[in-house]
Amino acid sequence: MIPLAASKLPSSRDELARAIDQALRRYVNKSGPMVEVRSRVFPYLDEIAINLDGARFDAVPPPPPPLAGENKPAFEAALIKLSAQNITLRGVPANVQVQAHDVILQKRDDANGQTVLLPQKVRDGHLTISAAQMALEQALANFIDREALPHGINIEQVRLAVRERGRRSLAAEVRVQARKLFLRAKIDIYAQLDIDDVFVARLSQLQCKSSGMVGTRACSILQPHLDRFEGKSFPLKSLPLGGGELHDLRIAVTDTVEINLDFGSA
User: What is the pTM of this model?
Assistant: First the structure.
């Protein structure tokens, strides 16, 4: 879904670019122009390019208002692309790249009377989400430190190791070294993610292990929270992919964790 800061369809490429840009600024903290629209014969669009590089999302974006009315024809775009390199979502770093070809867009109004564009059909598309392990480790360390400090626990070290177990599988290990007064503890947390042939993701092997009084106490508090997610499954085919279906998914892990998705109607 592409929001527009307008109550009717724009009548030129520049007006369309401004409407998308203004709508995105409700959710995104970023300076400079974010949207470029190329079109030789409007309303047939050669390209919609959205640039969110370096943007900060200080809070999870609120859900969009419910839609009202009926879908109506709007635009056809040869290419829609999104670049979101070096973004942060509540302090978590990530990179996102999306490309979609031969997209048919329909118009619909939301409950506030604002126009949104809905992809009805996508010939083919590609989505890449990635993050450096060191950046994820630092974000995780900051989170754990904030949570531990009110309990008088000092976090001395956090280490994250993600490894690839297969084309659609990965495992993660978090090692935490903590201190409370004169007592130290080493805590190990494990998790595994597997995605099957019908693109259902499942979490498993969520465990907290430690020894000593402080570590054992910490795991006794943490393990029930981990148990809530043990065996949980998430059908990835339900992802909103602009009218397309998920065709393939690949996971690659080096010093960066990368997930690639191919989708479309073709």
Answer: 0.85
